[in-house]
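Data availability excerpt. The first of two example chains:
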Amino acid sequence: MRKLETRTIVVASHNAGKIREIADLIGPFGFSAKSAAELKFQEPDETGTTFEENAAIKALASAKASGLPALSDDSGLVIDALDGAPGVYTANWTEREDGSRDFPWAMQKVETALQDKGATTADKRTARFVSVLCLAWPDGHTEMFRGEVEGTIAWPPRGADGFGYDPIFQPQGFDTTFGEMTAEEKHGWKPGDAEALSHRARAFKIFVETCLEA
């Protein structure tokens, strides 16, 4: 495993919500970071069929464009009753014909698909959020970190915090959705803590243990 020897990195994302969450996680470690959006890097085509492949595509594009290490995230909602959909195509499910992203519409699409499958009780609505972080260097070296959190799909959506599909995801062991949690509650982890709640925080914890800690 290669250690990260600089605290200057690029967050390889154009997603405002994702950039904010990653910034919240890396902040305590003293990182100086700019996003691919701020640097006006072109978004690469995500042609992979796994979270790992797409994370690598994004991180490598920003690392090579900037000459700095780049940290990307590819994440999605995996629903058992829908045979793993939307999965790596989670963002695609939000796209309208004009190219805009509409998360309320996408959440309704998820619910309609579950209803069509007869998945009306919690035991038939199991799901997980998956996050794969990729740290890439300009020379092409990559390190991968995967985090998952189990839960169920709630309906109707609840909460205005978080972003994306958070209002319909209720993590296992909780009565609230990610959309009803503060950032601190959702991540459930900070340096020195043993546990992490969100998929992204769990992946980030592995990143810290692998690439930052001596």
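And the second chain:
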Amino acid sequence: MEKFELHILGCGSALPTTRHFPSSQVVNLRDKLFMVDCGEGAQLQLRRSRLKFSRLNRVFISHLHGDHCFGLPGLISTFGLLGRTADLHIHSPHGLEELFAPWMEFFHKTLPYKVLFHEFDTKRSEVVYEDRSLTMSTIPLKHRIPCCGFLFEEKQVANHIIREMTDFYKVPVYELNRIKNGADFVTPDGELIPNARLTRPAEPARKYAYCSDTAFHPQIAEQIKGADLLFHEATFAQDEEARARETFHSTAAQAARMAADADVKRLVIGHFSARYEDESVLLDEARAVFPQTMLAKENLCVNVGAGGNRDF
């Protein structure tokens, strides 16, 4: 199975603590790295996670609160010091390029690479990136300012050829692509060889959904339905539901309810309020609703769709 990993760089909320870094993650799909949010310290956490800076070409910012984007100036500067030449693409809601313009003008005049800003509409879902193996779209969320989550959808690959069988039936090389894509094979004598005898199914395509920051928002359940892994903010425990509603955040129980409603396979909760020195109360609350829940923590690596993780 091809690599599809989630690396947690930071899972705290706005108020700094000694326990957590602000929000940042990296999705590693087949050794292409995609950063999701870039709070302070993200570049340090990249080092600690042993992720290669050179493989990171796109950053996706969910919204323009500082705990989700204050790490960008330092990251951009470090890329320059490392001699980067490849373009860096930053996707965000409207306003980030304008916000960063003075900083770019003052500190980054001599960058050896281009920083390209791309804006997306937070009121509707749209595809913001696509390549041969991945489609990445926005998930409109419900927060105090325009905000989107992100859905990473792996593209389904063709069936795998059973080499022993294609050799046995002397299948010409030029027929292999058709067979991989589901075609049967007809021998020179007119015998029909069904595709199922020549191939085995590929692993199902995997999906990862990122939903932070947001109040409980039932409308997103349909878009993320069946995801292999969901990250959903769980800023507060249920006894702080009023505070969660006031600040447009979610409780751990609400995050778990979303996971259950969307029929996802596993849930990671994060974006913890600084008031919790022990997040086990949040984990217990979420697991009471959705047992397949784990706590985010710095440098946690979760294999999307693999039913496990490397550090849990």
